[in-house]
Amino acid sequence: MEITACTAADVALLDLHMGSPGRTSFHARRFARQEAGECTYLVAWLDGRPVGHTEMRWTGCADPRVRAVRPGCPEIGGLAVWPEELRSHGIGTTLVGAAEQLARARDLTVAGIGVAKDNPRAAALYARLGYRPLVDYLDRYSYEDVDGTIRECVDPCAFLVKEPL
Fold first, then answer.
1. What is the mean pLDDT of residues 122-129?
2. Which fold does the domain 2-162 belong to in CATH?
3. Taking 80 as the threshold, does the pLDDT of residue 21 lie above it?
């Protein structure tokens, strides 16, 4: 397995192998944030195919509660492994480790990650990796559905922090 920063050419492959809901690609939006310097979008590759991704958001979590409790904390977000049968094979762990290494390279000593309250499997992974609960929050995001409708989503989450990295 290889972990690389996303390139413009990778976006179409991510859409093909790890699609996203709606009309606008999550991958294209994350790549645009990377191009703007707001994040580093990491992709896991296996046999030339993308099988996972995560985003190290240098701007941190957007939720005001999280920002108030832990200002300046970069956030590991959008972690996914696909197809499902590849989960629990170390891909997510490797992606989190790569994001942490990017933070250490910037002399940062802390990183955070949000986890949905209904995702105990991910919460267990993050706990094994040393992340501890900091604050509960509501993750709010939207996307444009294929019919052009804007879908607003709100997920109850916990923000976890690892310090030192």
1. 98
2. Aminopeptidase (3.40.630)
3. no
